[in-house]
Amino acid sequence: EVQLVESGGGLVQPGGSLRLSCAASGFTFSSYWMSWVRQAPGKGLEWVANIKQGGSEKYYVDSVKGRFTISRDNAKNSLYLQMNSLRAEDAAVYYCARCEIYYYDSSGYWGFDYWGQGTLVTVSS
Amino acid sequence: DIQMTQSPSSLSASVGDRVTITCRASQYISTNLNWYQQKPGKAPKFLIYAASSLQSGVPSRFSGSGSGTDFTLTISSLQPEDFATYYCQQSYSTPWTFGQGTKVEIK
């Protein structure tokens, strides 16, 4: 059974840092792209970052570029999100999600097929 | 960035009703469109990929259609467990973006 378990959320002051972790099990972690997706309280979903299987490619939403860093440790089956210079607008539930590619009609289609339960980040003084 | 716009933002329906949710992309995305269901306090659940392909285990009352910029999620006969918020998401180009959500409530 695929499981993704996030941890590391909490209360942090504006300008502070936090490191989120996601422990993966039930699948070959090193074979998948992984993502972080966030959801501000009462709001919709926002993709934050992606990382390729070996960590060589990383992509970020513009609002976190230069402040957040996605990384992974395939030996530990773990995904991370280092968040620096946190702002009030970064407050959200952060989800770890597995990226699956589906081949259909000779094309590939990406989707988030498994999600963790989320970890809450609160940014407040 | 590609903007995704869902309509309506919310709707009220009864068990057994046919429900349709629309998602429009701000530019061409072929069929790189996914649908998710989210219940309060829970993580999203993957329903449909490539605009019309049902994820494994998803009931057949859910269906998707569309290509280019206009897409539809249909629930053929609404069940009690279907009351939730539904999101579309494009995976055509980064940043991958979501619609604002459509909340399906009990009438």
Describe the structure.
The complex is a heterodimer of chains A (125) and B (107). With 125 residues, chain A is an all-beta fold. Helices cover 0% and strands 58% of the residues of chain A. Chain A is built from no helices and eleven strands. Chain A has strands at residues 3-7, 10-12, 18-25, 33-39, 45-51, 58-60, 68-73, 78-83, 92-104, 107-115, 119-123. In chain A, the strands form two sheets. In chain A, strands 2, 4, 5, 6, 9, 10 and 11 form a seven-stranded mixed beta sheet that branches. Chain A has a four-stranded antiparallel beta sheet with strand order 1-3-8-7, with no helix packed on it. Chain A is globular. Chain B is an all-beta fold and 107 residues long. Chain B has strands spanning 4-7, 10-13, 19-25, 33-38, 45-49, 53-54, 62-67, 70-75, 85-90, 97-98, 102-106. Chain B is globular. Chain B starts with a strand and ends with a strand. The A-B interface holds A 44-47, 50, 59, 61-62, 95, 102, 104-105, 107, 109-118 and B 1, 30-32, 34, 36, 38, 42-46, 49-50, 53, 55, 87, 89, 91, 94-101.
Chain-averaged pLDDT of chain B: 97
Shape assignment of chain A: globular
Please give the radius of gyration of chain B in angstroms.
13 Å
What best-fitting shape of chain B do the alpha-carbon axes yield? globular
Largest sheet of chain A: 7 strands, mixed
Keywords:
heterodimer; A: about 120 residues; mainly beta; seven-stranded mixed sheet; four-stranded antiparallel sheet; 11 strands; B: about 110 residues; about 0% helix; globular
Give the structure's gist in a few sentences.
The complex is a heterodimer of chains A (about 120) and B (about 110). Chain A is an all-beta fold and about 120 residues long.
Write the SSE topology:
The complex is a heterodimer of chains A (125) and B (107).
Chain A: E1 3-7, E2 10-12, E3 18-25, E4 33-39, E5 45-51, E6 58-60, E7 68-73, E8 78-83, E9 92-104, E10 107-115, E11 119-123
Parallel strand pairs in A: 2-11
Antiparallel strand pairs in A: 1-3, 3-8, 4-5, 4-9, 5-6, 7-8, 9-10, 9-11
Chain B: E1 4-7, E2 10-13, E3 19-25, E4 33-38, E5 45-49, E6 53-54, E7 62-67, E8 70-75, E9 85-90, E10 97-98, E11 102-106
Parallel strand pairs in B: 2-11
Antiparallel strand pairs in B: 1-3, 3-8, 4-5, 4-9, 5-6, 7-8, 9-10, 9-11
